[in-house]
Amino acid sequence: MTKFNPWLEQYKHPNWQKKRLEVLERDKFTCCHCEEKEKTLHVHHKWYQKGKKVWEYPNVCFITLCDECHDHWHFMQEQQKIDLYDWLVKDGWDLWDIEHLVVLASFNKTKTIKNFCLEIKKFDE
Q: Are 80 and 112 in contact (CB under 8 A)?
């Protein structure tokens, strides 16, 4: 028996469908990573905030990804969290810090996640 999940139900809401279409149109119905146009496309949240509905984010929060790139994005995000967690916990950081570092670092294309975190750490000291 499948459990009811109110969070997943939000993706059926007309407000989400409208937001999804806005993002797909902005990205010209093309994967922003590999530029694929023929595969199934996902409108992916780059981050979530507690208490917000899935459509209550600015469009900059979303990226259009094909199936393959979407799966890869999730895999890399989880792998980065695991690597960062191991590295930063030894240094006294907590999970909340790590989650936010992963989000911030995902927007930085010029540095590795670890180097980005080192810079944040230096700034925070």
A: no
pLDDT tens, residue by residue, 13-33:
999 999 999 999 999 999 998
Q: What is the pLDDT of residues 109-123, one digit of tens each?
A: 545 556 666 665 554
Using alpha carbons, list the distances in angstroms from residue 13 to 33, 51, 54: 27, 16, 9
- At 27, which amino acid appears? D
Rounded CA gap, 48 and 39, in Å? Answer: 25
Sign (positive or negative) of CA dihedral 80, 106, 66, 38: negative
Rounded Cα gap, residues 94 and 88, in angstroms:
8
Cα separation, 78 vs 80, whole angstroms:
5
